[in-house]
């Protein structure tokens, strides 16, 4: 290992250690309990004091309790007891998703919240995002005398009135126009904006600047608006200087691991025999044509009756895997060349996947994503990984022998083509609309996987690691179908 690589390794270790210190410090001084009720995983965060208001925090579609932890940390630091949970089919909840049962999930979380010794059962509120927003608004309507406030972030729909739910705050990001329109309709139906907290009929719409459907969850403007609304509802003056920076620590952790991989992999992964480079025309034509053929193929499958939305036991995620399979096979066919797989390549592919798994997921588990797969999800991981393998193999073959500037072009082109290809597919198959959740992830994910291709310089190693890694993300993120 060169001196430069040793310095890079030392820097990576320092960054990883610093990031874990930041994550651990965020929970210091809080009561944290993780447990289960009626098969529903729950997570409780509260201050170390008694008789504080309780807040139920509900995630959205394809979310998890971890994704809502920003609100929990900010509210707990300001004197609120918070309860988060995984809805059926989400996160660590192995129950299959049945929408009519999601309201019951909230009731289970409510009973668990009321059991906690820090909670004042006479002061309760609700907060939910997207799918969860509709569920908390319905709870605030059906049990209007129980909940003093409801906060709907990126709201969907509910039969709101001027009296129910009590003290309704609506939030939407400035970059999510459809949800702004939903929020404006709800505000009008509930009597319009006012500050009548004395009669529990206050109403407000907050537009969070420079935020879309996911980034609003990590936005301090959204967190502080929710805290202000609850403080006014409960006549509390509690404030907190805490700003939720856990995603920044997560980014630092990921950067540290990528630097570690950059320092170590070239020194330990053996170089494979040179594979003759495929012509640029075949590489680029495959990249551009594959999404077009895939969109047409999936549309045809839908027309002959194949149920794509719940394919493979996971909602939308199975269709994403099929998309990558068809696109990858098409791209490989146009490349018309395949390197010979070896046991050595398989071994190093597994090792590299394990390193990526730790780099991306070790901290994600406590910051924003249920990374540990429950058995029901573990069963679908390998099929999804196998489906993704052709695409990443084709990508690795196309990038062999390319220089740094060319690799940047491949990263940019793949990101654009994948986003465009999925948008084209959604134009014909709107029932797969939650594919949109993946679109903001493509540029950073493809950047990470392009780094892997550059470091190992062998298509089968990078393809196996990338496919196993991407399949894991699909298995972890999308809801289990019924």
TrEMBL record:
- Per its record, how is this protein called by name? Alpha/beta fold hydrolase
Q: Could you confirm whether the keyword Transmembrane helix appears in this record?
A: yes
Q: What residue intervals traverse the membrane?
A: 247-269, 281-301, 313-336, 348-374, 380-398, 410-429, 435-456, 463-481
Serine aminopeptidase S33 domain mapped to chain residues: 55-181
Q: Has keyword Electron transport? A: no
UniProt-listed Gene3D superfamilies: alpha/beta hydrolase
Where on the tree of life does the source sit, at the highest rank? Bacteria
Per UniProt, the keywords (alphabetical) are:
Hydrolase, Membrane, Transmembrane, Transmembrane helix
Molecular function as annotated in GO: hydrolase activity
UniProt-listed InterPro entries: AB_hydrolase_fold, FrsA_esterase, Hydrolase_4
